[in-house]
Design goal:
about 170 residues; alpha/beta; globular
């Protein structure tokens, strides 16, 4: 594996909760081996990261600097960062027709329930965000601890998909 970080794009529908959490967590724990990004298939106009998600990230000591909701179209244009791995973190985005990703990156689906969904109290939603953060963090820590040979392009697809089973 080269010294350049592995670029990972996390996708969700609105890019306000799960994909934002995954981006922040992997950039925090990736130790320079990974550069994480996130995007949505159809973020709403003026979409912002969910404040409860930002709150749990900050509570876990993870930086929220630079996090913003954006369309996946930003990563499918000339000059965009080349992705090595694309992971959908919501079932809706996993079923959508994705843009063409230059370089044929590996793909995987890691489904998580939307912590912002439902009519629960703010305390219940905050707990749902904490639960999602911890579930993502466990899986991303496993990925970040993999030996370099498991992250080589030829094995990356099966490795990422195997982590979905854990």
């Amino acid at each position: 594996m080269s010294d350049k970080p592995l670029n990972v794009l996390f996708l969700c529908t609105h890019n306000s909760a799960r994909s934002i959490l995954a981006e922040a967590i992997l950039n925090h724990i990736g130790q320079g081996r990974f550069k994480a990004y996130s995007a949505g298939s159809s973020p709403r106009d003026n979409q912002q990261p969910n404040p409860l998600g930002l709150q749990v990230l900050q509570g876990a000591g993870i930086s929220v600097e630079g996090l913003r909701s954006k369309s996946w179209d930003e990563f499918a244009v000339p000059g965009a960062p080349h992705m090595d791995l694309i992971i959908t973190v919501c079932d809706n985005a996993a079923g959508e027709v994705c843009p063409y990703w230059p370089g044929q990156p590996a793909t995987a689906h890691w489904g998580y329930a939307d912590p912002s969904a439902g009519d629960g109290t703010d305390a219940q939603k905050l707990e749902a965000f904490r639960h999602t953060l911890h579930a993502l963090k466990r899986r991303l820590e496993l990925m970040a601890s993999l030996p370099p040979e498991k992250l080589e392009k030829t094995l990356l697809q099966s490795t990422a998909r195997d982590l979905a089973k854990g």
